[in-house]
Amino acid sequence: MSGEGERAHRSRFDPLPEWIGPSTRLVHAARRPDYNAGAVVPPIYQTSTFHYPGPFSEASERSRAYLYTRIENPTQEVAAEPIRALEGAEGARVFGSGMGAIATTLLGLLRHGDEIVALADLYGGTVDLMSHLLPKYGVHVRWVHQDETAEPESCVRPGTRLAYIETPTNPTLRVLDIERWARAADAAGALLVIDNTFATPLNQTPIALGADLVVHSATKYLAGHSDVIAGAVAGSTRLLERIDAAHVALGATLDPFAAFLLARGLKTLALRMARQNENGRRLSAALRDHPAVRALHYPGFGSAEEEAIAARQMRGRGGIVSLSLAGGEHAARQFLQRLRLVHVASSLGGVESLVSVPAETSHRQLNAEELDARGIDRGLVRISLGIEDTDDLLRDITEALDGVAASVPATRD
Ligand SMILES: *Cc1c(COP(=O)(O)O)cnc(C)c1O
């Protein structure tokens, strides 16, 4: 991880032309056939440890390529390189889970006495980490609510070490102005960390907009097949070195086989996202005026300002659509029962469409008041659209909504 230039056996990835697009980059980014016996698909280095080239000495330490898989492994690098390339970062690392990536990043960068500012609507696991674990180590977390986020200048104050946000948010898909947050963080001397799981680097590249680090649950869109738990961090070499030190100690390592699955999934990310963006675009337009739907959440739908921000910073709006059903909790239950293609499950970003009720899954730890503050009612369903045919999803979801509208008309408000 450190001193990459010095290590004799560590061949770099093949240089690629500057002019290639993201689909090409995803397919070719991790190419280094010289290192891999000419194999088109790099092998899975399913090994815990690596030979030393000679007796322990400074010279053999310098000439070794890899040491131990908790620290580094070529298959992990094959998975990290396309993420690095797409996020436009100096470097990237993969981890055993999204939470592993987030926890390692925060514990690597923060110290006792630091204050961080965080969006109250973050992913539930991140909220837990920040509200229970970090304070035990003397890190103070100041939460900001959605209605304050339009003015990051008053959220990030001098003395704040780090600002941490997600955009679009979960599950109401509100959009925050990344460039403005980056400027505000810069002015206060704080680092800006963005969880880019929902958008993916195809739809949004926070580093180009001034963010310092991007974190991912690679479990979701990046791997894309709901068959692996993984995480990633991308950013500058300087910051990654601090995270590496924590990684060696914390050990949230991505197993080589899981790294292979992530690397394989990444090759089709652009194709998958194109379909998922299209599914999101068409379903959000078609379902907006359905009588069973009280409100539809999709990036840019929140307000004219958010639409302008989304148009500026997003290349696609993604495959997550949330519906607040007019009939509340009862309607949500009915809706889930009536769906024939869309599976009921938490998680998102896979090839198959999934639906969940955030108040009962990802946000169940919140009380009624906290749910209210986030615009999450008990009739809110979050749909992660997969890569199925758009017409099939539209039909399945519309028929389920029609059934709900017919059976619970009295509760419509
Ligand atoms: C799922 C998720 C995480 C946590 O990732 P795991 O891979 O489940 O550990 C973090 N952030 C967001 C936005 C997520 O959706």
List the main descriptive attributes of the protein structure presented here.
39% helix; 413 residues; disordered N terminus; globular; alpha/beta; 15 helices; binds pyridoxal-5'-phosphate
Would you give an account of this structure?
There is one protein chain. The chain has 413 residues and is an alpha/beta fold. The chain is 39% helix and 14% strand. It has 15 helices and twelve strands. The chain has helices spanning 22-28, 58-63, 74-87, 98-109, 124-136, 152-155, 178-188, 200-203, 237-250, 256-267, 269-287, 304-313, 328-338, 368-373, 390-407, and strands at 91-95, 115-119, 140-144, 160-166, 191-195, 213-217, 231-235, 293-297, 320-325, 343-344, 354-356, 380-384. The protein has a seven-stranded mixed sheet, with helices on both faces. The termini are far apart. The relative contact order is 0.12. The chain binds pyridoxal-5'-phosphate.
Please state how the strands of the largest beta sheet are arranged side by side.
1-7-6-5-4-2-3
Low-confidence blocks of residues: 1-9
Label the overall shape: globular
Percent of residues in beta strands?
5-15%
Distance between the termini: 57 Å
| Average pLDDT taken over every residue | 93
- Could you give the order of the helices and strands? HHHEHEHEHEHEHEEHHHEHEHEEHEH
Radius of gyration (Å): 22 Å
Helix and strand composition category: alpha/beta
Ligand list = pyridoxal-5'-phosphate
Number of helices: 15
Largest sheet features:
7 strands, mixed
Helical residue percent band: 25-40%
Q: Tell me how many strands there are.
A: 12
